[in-house]
């Protein structure tokens, strides 16, 4: 795969202004493409369109269903449904709606578990099957959130692929009646130093940033992960969250015979034709560059106008139903809205505003042009809707009406080109119980445990390992990426990256807010997909809990290889089972998400990568707990149980390039206990800092918490504990907290009362300017910062002015600290401004002997289903 | 009666609600102004907020400058109405020739969002009178095209006449000439600033509350001139 040269990577703007030439090129490329590339375009049929009448009279005409991704039996079923061969336009519609991407044909039988095992919830207003899940968070307000993948487009054309990924998920949120209020992104790339990563990463980041920034949505968190398994198949998972008054909830049903179907937003062009069937539902090969016309082109400005127009229409009560147009374009929106209401529709395709008048009906129906919504409007309110659209400068066109015929009938130039039952497209797609088989290498892989690898022994070796991990691409400072995202817009961002969760204020009066985290770990899932999925869930849950929020709901992006490979299908089934079981145990439902298959180049699939988003609620965001040390003298307490769990760890990967063994034990009861203690402690103001322990273990947690406000720590471990294990094990269910001195006793009493394993391991040390483990090593914070912050600039280009001094950096990432009850010794703000508080009292007491590895029993170690 | 401060919404304005919040927190009444409406509704001052007006597709601020409301703003600014342009608003003020110079693509070509230290250099404006000359403040900067440029004579003239309102310190985030973050017109009623004071008005959501000074300054200024 050669890198694709790009000349205008960061300038979506320029591409849009001068869009005429770009569009003129697109169809030419499509038509000139070789076999796989033009799969979205059926062959020319001769004079006039292929009408229903013509289809009935030419039953034996050969049709390119295989090229469109349909199997023989699927094609036969279409003929059976229609009682004739499909027209060209109908064939295009079935091929799209029955593609893996739209029909979930391989995953459906497994995804049912999310509903079957879902814990009872009074607050879930909309769930799986809707555009996004909706959770009520107060008497009047609800939140809707969802994650979605845009992996394949982002590999083909990183900037636009990622940009339209953000645009698509935002429209899902908008379609529920919500104002979108934030985005997050979980990104996975190939090896950090691979030449193609230099092409893909900057484009993806500028795409995510460019679209979200122009839309005015703060980006509040996510992940950036590197692993060679994503080399030919990066993952771009975007999450959006929105807020709505409970009574503004919208739905997609095209109810009401005689109601008008209105297309709102951008004109329809040839961009993205075949996106879902060609890009999302097939594996990459060497011809991928020629698929670029299948990637949509985004216009965030249009989407911003679309958002404002839709919200105005909602508030005025002008619509009956609404659906966004994304993958599968009009085909999906028309058939799903009609099917949801059990109705039919009559649509005149000539009325669709086109960028290119030469477009054929199947192209208009398949186009994935962005920034469009489909509205169902009562006839009396059509003028009012058009007036709102005009105010915001958005096209709005009545395309037809809802009928009670039960048929979706589409005409073009006076002739009927589509006449199908909409449910056959939207709901009756094929469902496969694909064969599954455990990968044959798994037993050997699991036997090759990282716990047996050579470990650093001396203090110097430990010191070197801490620095090496801090500088590794997966753990290093991600500022190079995140400073390309606006995290301030809308003025309600309470916490954003690199904090454990994004925390957003919803209600300025009461302080009601939400916390969101998006996490995955493909290595753990490779070693054990069932527990790997649970671990991803546990991490996202914990990341929400450490801020003090109460986790309430889950979304997911399930990224896997080809479902036609039985071992991939087994991984998928195991991961879904794990996630469904995990949600049941944690008592929080999956409210929606997406499945991305075919993430593989050639025969090698990616590591199975379930990415999990957890939503939490906070009654008062002023009580949120940040992840950075903020006050000198705070006592450091490690919560949870540390075991010698190194398989799949960042340490094993970075120092030995090793992946083997079984991932850390999952104990969701312990996660719940930890979360409940953190919630109580933050409510009572006991916590100055709380930071999740995950990748890189305690060592990395200490590094991150120290660098946040440039406040070091002095740690001391008891003699009988192996400092290596305590520093680098990735046991789940743990968090590091810093407790103000006056609060220590009360907090420890709370831990004891709830029977949560806890150990004092040191103090925040404002004077030392270093991270010190007594008797082992001491690393000045400047040295750690240098190691951590130079990795990405070295790989992806040093940005001028980015190399501020450590002090300036510390000050610039300063976070105004919470004020629990006034007895935090020193606020973060002052801490940063005073640079390092040299005069601050340093506690000599480094705590009781620690026994973290041997702390009170949680549950027995046999939690896994295996 | 509290002061009324207008915040213009162009298609593509993004920080308009933030500016309204800042006005409210400073103790004034925010008034939403619409790009297509030439009426300023009798406001005592106007803020042009951040965002991507008209998508910034031609050139930042180039289309917004021709909107109906801008005709009124330009005229009123000539009569002494305090006007603050933030980020995209600064770009619009330059396009409208209310301020000299131009904002171009960041030197490093990336959008950048960071908490930025500034040194306030001119306090003889309607929007910065509440600061002390030389005071260092911390407010967010976030832009893709925030690199301030002008010819040398203009820069010298700005320096000589004390019209550089704020400079970047401890690192220049976008390559602006002479570290310029904010400038004013001769009269001092019109100020353009690239960083976002409206994002530093609450301890909970901002890196500081230093930004509030811009909004309280204009209220004091209006009070003194009432």
CATH class of chain B: Alpha Beta
Q: Unreliable runs of chain A, pLDDT <50, ≥5 residues? A: 1-45, 802-866
Structural class of chain A: alpha+beta
How helical, in percent, are the residues of chain B?
10-25%
Strand content of chain A: 15-25%
Count every beta strand of chain B, where a strand is a DSSP E run of 2 or more residues. 11
Q: What does this protein structure show overall?
A:
The complex is a heterodimer of chains A (866) and B (226). Chain A has 31 helices and 28 strands. A seven-stranded mixed β-sheet of chain A has the order 8-10-7-11-9-12-13. With 866 residues, chain A is an alpha+beta fold. With 226 residues, chain B is of the alpha/beta class. Chain B has one domain: Rossmann fold (3-Layer(aba) Sandwich). Chain B has helices spanning 16-26, 68-78, 88-95, 152-160, 212-225; strands at residues 4-9, 29-34, 45-48, 83-86, 102-104, 112-120, 136-143, 147-149, 164-169, 180-184, 190-193. In chain B, the strands form two sheets. Chain B has a nine-stranded mixed β-sheet with strand order 2-1-3-4-11-10-9-6-7, with helices on both faces. Chain B has a two-stranded antiparallel sheet with strand order 5-8. The radius of gyration of chain B is 16 Å and the shape is globular. The model of chain B has no long low-confidence stretch (mean pLDDT 96). The chains are: A alpha+beta (866), B alpha/beta (226).
